[in-house]
Amino acid sequence: MKILVTLKYSHVPRRAYNRLKEGKMVKLTIDLIARGTSGYTKKKRDETMHQYLKRLTHLYLENKGIDEVGDDMSLCRNLSVLYLYDNQLTHIPSLHQNQHLTMIYLQNNNISRIEGLAHLIRLTKLYLGGNAITVIEGLEKLDRLQELHVENQALPPGEKLLFDPRSIRAISGSLKVLNVSGNNLDSIKDLECLNQLSHFLAIDNQLNDMKELAHVLGQWYYLNRLDLMGNPLCHKAKYRDRVIVMAKQLDTLDGKQISETAKQFLKNWHANKETQRQKRADLIRRGTSFIDDYAVGESGDLPPVREPGRMGTIPGYMMPGTFRGLPRKQFDELLARTSALADTGIQRSAPIKARSGLLRSKYIDTSHGSKTNLFSGSAPLRRRPLMSVAFELNTETLNQTQHIPPDLWDNVR
Hints:
Layout: H1 2-8, H2 14-21, E1 26-27, H3 30-35, H4 49-55, E2 58-60, E3 66-68, E4 81-83, E5 103-105, E6 125-127, E7 135-136, E8 147-149, E9 162-163, H5 165-171, E10 177-179, E11 199-201, H6 210-219, E12 225-227, H7 239-246, E13 252-253, E14 256-257, H8 260-285, H9 293-296, H10 328-344, E15 353-354, E16 359-360, E17 362-365, E18 370-373, H11 395-400, H12 406-412
Parallel strand pairs: 1-3, 2-4, 4-5, 5-6, 6-8, 7-9, 8-10, 10-11, 11-12, 12-13
Antiparallel strand pairs: 13-14, 15-16, 17-18
């Protein structure tokens, strides 16, 4: 076990290593800074320590148990990348003399507040995951920030990560990558102004509102990568298809590539669905109940309604339940049979029944004692779906047909 510990901290100065073994914290010193460089930036023989520190651009100070930085960091005037993750820092160190910094790695410390970054106007990447931050703030001056990582904060029980609107608006014109995974978020509405985002990570949160997600994704025009695994909305029906339709520029969802074929298919499906919805809304707005396209024909228009008194010489004639009226020839035959019935003096026998397509009745000829079919001797009429015959005779015509049986009279009337 002693060998493993020695290997792990072999790059730590002996004095700092002894303090780590004793459980004490480590303060950043010039000696520790000088050792936290790569082999490409070793100190030259004729170079003073101040000159050496001034030309450093990268410092590797991760996992050294550092709890305090001090003022020695100000000697590194040209520092651009600083690695301070996996230490014991309780606050962001004062770096106002290091205005050339572009990347800071502060993951897995004990930082509880974002502060002291106002002078770092060139900062493009900020890593703060695994700390104890409760509010994203203090970013008002970082209008060049492109990546912000604040995942898995040690929040109080039942609390969620909050966002200061001023900070979010300040970085909205530059931020391209945002990682807010594991922060108990149930809403991302506060982030909709980040319209330059290309990659959004919100894994293991409490997001469940698809309507809000659709609204926010509609504002993120450049989003091409989205990670939402571990949220309740991932269990909703057609989750993946719906999200792809919401974010039209998306290339990767939850780590899986989206093919162009899938995009085009879902795009066409959504367009067809929207067309049907718009058609239904138009019909309802006109006060007409929705009828399927197959019922109303290819044009999508409802069939014309024929008004009474326009289809024949008999006033009040109408043909309900059909798209087209009864052909004139068949109507004339029906009218002739009705007139013939009045001349023969046939008495009633059986009630008239209205059947689909035609009126069929049988009578007994009292003069000959035989049954007579009203439509015998004529060609049968072609049956039409959903067609029934209804007609009216005016008073003058009915007075001339004195021998029409009462049941027929009732049906005609």
